[in-house]
Write a structure and sequence with these properties.
The protein is of the alpha/beta class. The strands form 4 sheets. It has a 10-stranded mixed beta sheet with strand order 1-16-2-15-14-3-4-6-5-13, sandwiched between helices. It has a 5-stranded mixed beta sheet with strand order 17-18-19-20-21. The chain is 38% helix and 16% strand. The chain has 24 helices and 21 strands.
Length: 671
């Protein structure tokens, strides 16, 4: 519980998580005093392994501080939105929306979803100087304490604390903000998982270096340039694009077969049908019509990329593609032109196919010949056989398209610069999300990623979104220009919905409206259109004080109860901590009038022990002696369970070792 976490966080140092990994896999490399022996580590590696002291390094003020944060746990609790979650469309949903700070959310999520996420898409703050990003966290270390924890000088510790406390927007502050979040993101990804990160030129270079540090440079999958603007209002070079940086968890497991459908193929087929109706089998005339038709499309149009498909025959539209040999001079022979009867010009490197295969292709009409033998023949590559292509590195889509679509859905312009759901759907589909896959977005903003997942109708894909409860009234006070109008519209919408003035409320409403639109347009669609909602909350200050001063070894009584947090809140926080996630519920168990909660390998005793009697213990023993009840962990809310009841429970559980069931049960008291 919270006190346990506070006590544990007090001992955290940078690198602790990495040290635990080494202890797990290389215990022989540690001395009895717990020191790491690098020479034993060298000996444990395969013979011939090179260990180098050379490193390019990537350091910034706050890096060790950020690494320390990855080893700390959150003290927040997970409060379920009971009214929302009990609605018919939500009660069985596998989708989740979390209101709260994403660092806290990630610290919860890794306990239940580590290694289970297929794709993470995030659109973090770009640190443009006008997007409102400033670094701030909730920790209050002294200069001396931080210097000791990070093993640095007090002067450097002071510089770090100054950065974290003065609302800095420097590059170092942004990197300090991003590092722990991306570290947890990596922990969440499956072996073949992918992370996609939107960014612009302000932090793109730093983000790539940071991701190389966290995911490994070898796992860079590529970078997409998204041309989304036509503005011309900057000095030197007008920036008209953003980036989407892509990394995989491991290229060993994700081999990168990312495929997308070619766009514009329906229009191309329709145009050639029209040309054929005009010219019949005059293939050269159809070719001339096609060349003129393609000229109308700018480079930003997807059809422009297919302009080489400008020939047609009885089989359909084709591209007269290169036929030269892959190995210089491997296949050299004469090819006779079917009209002139003369030997055709041969590619400098020879033919691609061996002679018998070439003759077969010529007989089948699969080789394209020009008017005479002076031009090298070509292979025919048909458009109908190449409707898919590798995911391309350039996307042309005006950013205003997404804004207009969201405004239409919400009935007002209430969010600036939302990401395009169609583009994210395209990326998720190209990556190959499948039934049961989980998509996470912990900078969810307007909720675009949820709608993007809902648009994948042929697969049962789940999502988890996280959005901090940013106060719109505070945002309005610091906004300028058109941003003020947008925020005013958002506040007005919140008032109409009778919800708090926070961004997460806008995001949830967007998901609800997108789901409603899908239902209306697809009445027979039976997919998951709901979501469960949770809010992350810190214990109230008076409770924190009571918990910090409570000593379970000395104090017998306390006035802290589960009701101070909410039984459902304590239960859900524990379920996530024990790996059961945010969508699976515990079963209520009646122990002679005392309600316990049972899930998997855990039995939770949260309610006050005033109803926990000898009869409750007897009922529990009866359940253990049954066939389908064998939780090996009994988790107790320490503040509301007295020492006497715990001792009595422990004494009775010992009998299980002597009985026919032979089960060892661990009692876990949490504070």
């Amino acid at each position: 519980m919270v006190k346990d976490i506070i006590d544990k966080n007090g001992q955290v140092q940078a690198g602790g998580k990495e040290l635990e990994v080494l202890k797990h896999y290389f215990p022989q490399c540690f001395t009895t005093e717990g020191d790491f022996d690098i020479e034993k580590f060298r000996a444990a590696l395969p013979e011939g392994t090179n260990i180098t002291d050379e490193t390019t390094g990537f350091n910034f003020l706050g890096k060790n501080y950020a690494r320390m944060l990855t080893n700390m746990d959150t003290t927040t609790l997970i409060r379920p939105d009971i009214e929302h979650n009990s609605k018919p469309e939500n009660k069985d949903s596998q989708n989740v929306y979390i209101s709260g700070d994403n660092l806290d959310a990630l610290q919860h999520l890794v306990k239940s979803y580590s290694g289970e996420v297929k794709v993470i898409y995030i659109d973090p703050p770009y640190n443009t100087g006008s997007d409102g990003f400033v670094y701030e966290d909730k920790f209050s270390f002294s200069k001396e304490e931080l210097a000791q924890r990070l093993d640095i000088t007090p002067e450097r510790a002071g510089r770090i604390l100054s950065m974290t406390k003065r609302n800095s927007a420097s590059h170092a502050a942004w990197l300090t903000f991003m590092l722990p979040r991306l570290s947890f993101a990596r922990d969440l990804l499956k072996k073949d998982g992918v992370i996609l990160i939107s960014i612009d030129e302000n932090e793109e270079a730093n983000l790539r270096l940071l991701c190389n540090d966290i995911f490994g440079e070898e796992n860079l999958a590529g970078e997409i340039v998204w041309k989304n603007s036509s503005k011309n209002d900057e000095d030197y070079i007008s920036m008209q694009h953003e980036y989407i940086l892509a990394y995989v968890k491991s290229k060993e497991y994700n081999v990168g077969e990312w495929i997308e459908p070619k766009q514009g193929t329906d229009e191309i087929f329709a145009a050639f049908d029209k040309f054929k109706a005009m010219h019949g089998s005059d293939w050269k005339a159809i070719h001339e019509e096609a060349l003129k038709w393609y000229k109308q499309f700018p480079p930003s149009d997807p059809i422009y990329d297919s302009k080489h498909y400008n020939w047609m025959d009885e089989r359909g539209v084709y591209f007269a593609s290169d036929i030269s040999g892959p190995n210089y001079g491997q296949y050299t022979y004469d090819v006779i032109h079917p009209i002139t009867g003369k030997v055709c010009k041969m590619p400098a490197s020879g033919w691609r196919f061996e002679e018998t295969e070439m003759k077969k292709k010529i007989d089948q009409g699969l080789i394209h010949f020009s008017d005479d033998e002076t031009i090298i023949p070509n292979n025919k590559t048909y458009l109908k056989d190449t409707l898919n292509q590798s995911l391309t590195s350039i996307i042309y889509r005006d950013g205003r398209v997404a804004s207009k679509r969201l405004t239409s859905l919400m009935g007002t312009n209430c969010f600036s610069n939302p990401k395009d759901s169609e583009i994210i759907t395209k990326l998720l589909t190209a990556i190959g999300v499948d039934d049961g896959d989980l998509v996470v977005d912990f900078f969810s903003g307007s909720g675009t990623t949820a709608e993007s997942v809902l648009n994948i109708r042929d697969k049962k894909v789940k999502y988890i979104l996280v959005q901090i409860q940013e106060d719109l009234d505070i945002a309005l006070a610091r906004a300028t220009g058109s941003g003020k109008t947008t925020i005013k519209n958002a506040i007005k919408l919140c008032d109409e919905l009778n919800v708090p003035h926070t961004i997460d409320q806008i995001g949830m409403e967007r998901i609800k409206r997108a789901a409603k639109k899908i239902r209306e347009e697809n009445p027979l669609f039976a997919g998951d259109l709901g979501f469960k909602h949770y809010t992350l909350e810190e214990p109230k200050e008076n409770l924190l004080l009571k918990m910090e001063t409570f000593n379970p070894d000395k104090d017998v009584m306390t006035d802290i109860t589960a009701d101070d947090f909410g039984v459902e809140t304590v239960l859900r926080t524990w379920l996530v901590a024990d790996g059961y996630g945010l969508t699976e519920d515990a079963e209520e168990i009646n122990l002679n009038g005392y309600t316990a909660y049972y899930k998997g390998n855990h039995l939770y005793l949260i309610n006050p022990d005033d109803k926990f009697s000898a009869g409750s213990i007897a009922a529990l023993m009866d359940k253990y002696n049954g066939e389908a009840f064998s939780p090996q962990n009994i988790v107790i809310f320490g503040y509301s369970f007295g020492f006497t009841h715990r001792e009595e429970l422990q004494k009775n559980l010992r009998t299980l070792k002597d009985g026919s069931k032979t089960l060892t049960v661990n009692i876990d008291v949490r504070y």
